[in-house]
Design brief:
Oligomer: single chain
Shape: globular
Number of helices: 0
Order of helices and strands: EE
Largest sheet: 2 strands, antiparallel
Distance between the termini: 16 Å
Helix content: under 10%
């Protein structure tokens, strides 16, 4: 997880039980590195997120354009 400035969130992201966190460009977001093939804006794929207490969750991702002013 990265913050709005592209810095890694130290110690992960605390999400209290029952809370909702929205990840989006220009705010908290997930950035994938080391991909084996290119992805295009608007492309969708399924992956997983791992949580310390809740285990693994399946997530549908959509590739978004970078937020203005970011790389």
């Amino acid at each position: 997880i990265e913050d709005a400035k592209g810095g890694e969130v130290a110690d992960g992201l605390l999400i209290p039980a029952g809370a909702t966190v929205i990840l989006k460009p220009g705010s908290l977001h997930i950035q994938f590195g080391g991909l084996t093939q290119p992805v295009e804006e608007g492309e969708e794929f399924t992956g997983t997120l791992g949580f310390a207490k809740a285990g693994i969750a399946t997530v549908d991702y959509e590739v978004a354009a970078p937020a203005p002013g970011t790389n």
